[in-house]
Amino acid sequence: MGCHTWFYEKVNKSEEELKKCLSNVLDDYIISENDTEIVEEIGLLYVKLANIKILRIIRLLNNNTIKYNNLITHVSEYCDGLYLIKNKILYKEINFFDLFRTGYSDKILLSLGETLQFIKDSDIVIEDKNLILLKQFWIKHPNGVIDFR
Predict the structure, then answer these.
(1) What is the side-by-side strand order in the sheet with 145-148?
(2) pTM metric for this prediction
């Protein structure tokens, strides 16, 4: 099967924009301990732990002490999509996924040529339709990246 293949496009969001995005949605994730349906479904301990995590993030945001990389992790979980920081550049996941699979790799692919060479060197078989989609990705997102997890 192999690692998933994730496709990202470069975005230009400042740290302040990400903080605003996160603070706008966090309150919606606090679960009332009086909500018996949710408590019965997932358990009171999970509700308390989830709320503690959210309240901690809110406190860090309000104190302006959350680090940028940690902010990305939290935005990915609660905000408007999955984000990734590679080489101090911010990327957001897009709707290309698993066009090919590989074993674990910490490699980051930055171009079509590099991707095709990686596929060849790794003896990966890619379907023709996925090869077309792969080429479309690099045409539409020349500043994108492919990451493996």
Answers:
(1) 83-86, 89-97, 5-10, 145-148
(2) 0.61
Same domain, 77 and 20: yes
Q: Which two tokens stand for residue 67?
A: 């680090």
Kindly state whether residues 100 and 76 are assigned to the same domain: no
Note whether 1 and 101 are within 8 A (CB).
yes
CB 57 within 8 A of CB 76: no
Q: How far apart are CA 117 and CA 111, in angstroms?
A: 10
Q: Which residues of the chain have pLDDT under 70?
A: 1-2, 15, 18-19, 21-33, 38-39, 42, 46-52, 54, 56-81, 83, 85-88
Q: Give residue-wise pLDDT tens across range 60-88.
A: 666 666 665 566 665 555 566 676 766 66
Report whether 112 contacts 134 (CB < 8 A).
Answer: yes
Domains contained in the chain, number: 2
- Are residues 62 and 45 both part of a single domain? yes
Range of the domain at 136: 5-10+91-148
Extract the tokens encoding 36.
């018996």
